[in-house]
Amino acid sequence: MKRFLLVALAAVMLVSSVACSTATTNTSATSAVATAATTGASTDSSTATEATKQDVTITYMVSQDQLQDAEIALGQKFTEATGIKVDYQVIPSDQYVNLLTTKMNAGECADIFSSQGGQFDIVTQLNVEKNAVDLSGESWSSTVDPLAAAELSVDGKLYGQPIQDVSSVWAIAYNTKIFTDNNLQVPTTFAEFKTVCETIKTAGITPVYECVSDGWHHVLWFPEVGAAYEAAEPGLIDNLNSNTTTFASSAVMKQSLDQIKEMVDAGYWGENYMSNAYADAAKSFASGEYAMVVANQGFGAEVEAIGTELKASDVGYFVIPLVDNQILNVNPVGPSRFIYSGSKNVDAAKQYLAYIAQAENLQYLIDNVSKNNTLPFIGVTDKYSETIKTFYATYATHGTVLQTTVKYLNPQWMEIGKELAALILGDSTSDDVLKNIDKNRADQATAAKDPAWNE
Amino acid sequence: MNERKTYPLYFVYGALILYVALCVIPGLIGIGYSFTDWSSYSDEINFIGLKNFATIFSPDENYVEYLSNTILFTLVTTICKSVIGLSLAVLLTKKIRGLNIHRAIMYMPAVISTLIVGMTFKSILNPQIGLLNESLRSIGLDVFALKWLTDSKIAFWSVMAVDIWKGVGYIMTIFIAGIMAISPAYFEAAEIDGATSWQKFKSITLPLLMPTIAVTTVLNVLYGLKVFDIVYSLTNGGPGYATEVLYTGVYKEFSQGRYAVGTTLSSVMFVVMLFVGYFMIKIMTKKEVEE
After folding, report:
1. Is residue A300 part of a domain?
2. Residue contact A24–B120, C-beta within 8 A
3. B220 part of a folded domain
């Protein structure tokens, strides 16, 4: 009887653990990746027997949205070529920034880590001069696009390697078929945008796909129209950086937040915006249940890859029209790879970065990653479609996004996500959100002993 | 020198040195850092007095809200785990078929990693495609298919419910051990006197279980006050700040490189837990000592 009980107990425990992992994998991409994080999606299978190659495993800590299957495939080839194994530690995006900075502050970071670039943030948030390895002497460093390199450099030293296409902008991707069926035109003002949303909603389609639970995506609405804030209140960005004005005193930024809240209250984000995940955006969009989503210009290819009737050419783009914005938002900053200065495998990590930066591998990443239309390296061939070229050509004025131009904003991206979630849920006001952004900026600036905040 | 002592005092030195070196000194250093401006942004560390404490208790910060969430979590989970755990323990000390299987099933959540529990329940409680809401809808109870983890009004209650589900088996096991340590002679005597089940529970089980209840309450309260992982894995403090507790606040401060504020929060919690633990044990074991 006892033996039976033991066997039964073991069987139940096994089934429950399998059930856990199955439920996780089937229902949530985030959780699936998180599970991968705990097990490690290692590429260590094929080359262990080759004694002449290096017996080293490098760890690469990366946010779930910043690692693509194509890079893992390249990682396997890298292992075959060098014997160096790559252990990808994939972290859910809502937890990534906190975990990375905690690990770094505790001196326990992975050999390679991914993070957003940005000339201010890599100093204040990552402290790359202390925490990252200078990559200026690497063979590939001179091939990085100068604009992107500038955002990854401190005092002329390059510390990061771009991961993604930074030419792409976060704009509103829309289903052109739904627009045509409902006789809709691309909106140029917020009032027109509301009319578009209302029409789509009346047609039984959710106007906008949004995913607050990821913590980062819904934030895009606010800072991506930064150039429009500057246009409405000239000198705003300089004054914010010199601490002579605040977010809370900006009428145009308050208006922007109020318009976000207005959209949600009107039901334009549907019912499930709090629990949706960005990983499901293309699938949801392709299903025809949603008409628009904030996305970059690789989104059309992602939608086509889902395999429904919707093709990449059926996805059009327009700029986020909050506060009547009509300026194309550009941002030379994107996710990048850094080598941790405390790593014991710096040479192996450098070899990995060098391998990824080989011309044929960069081209492989462009050709096989939907969201990459190009990569910020000299000599690669882009794959812009006519739709995307038309979109870029539509907007004569270009302006840089707020998170790149204003100091101490990007590091609090996830905090702003929480603030916006509270605003959307009615737990706080737009004034509270702006005041808290000011407070968080002041905290960081004071800690960094920024003269503008410490005089 | 007390002659009745079995072992000489120096027997304790080894353990004491380790405890002081690994627990007391780091703890005191942590408290010391609470009075500085230690951060990742600067190599300089300056003494700033009580400024960090003023920051924590300032109305501009959310920490008081985090503290009240932590206390609510502690109260609710302690009461529920104790009541449900005790009820299950009473039931599972009866002579019933498959007793050990029942006990194993109830205890099983306690051995699963909190992060796995968090991820699993995140999926189960998904408002759109989660198992719970799908089940409710399939039997026509659409009205109860709520946004369990994404509605700020109920998210914290969902987190507490998951934590109770996970923790109740552990508490139940301690209660079972406590009940089994009670001499059956008391129950037999009561039965001869014609006592009902409720009378036996009220007059025998409960009073003799008080030392066990004191232990489980202290365990539950201290666990509740330092809760982190279940909140982190289920909601990461969201939606908004609805489910933030003190240790998610500490984590956030540390991850933002504001070490001093993080250690200040930890120090405050250390003092609170010290007082709560000390007085709880004192109050709950008062009768025992008097006897």
Report:
1. yes
2. yes
3. yes
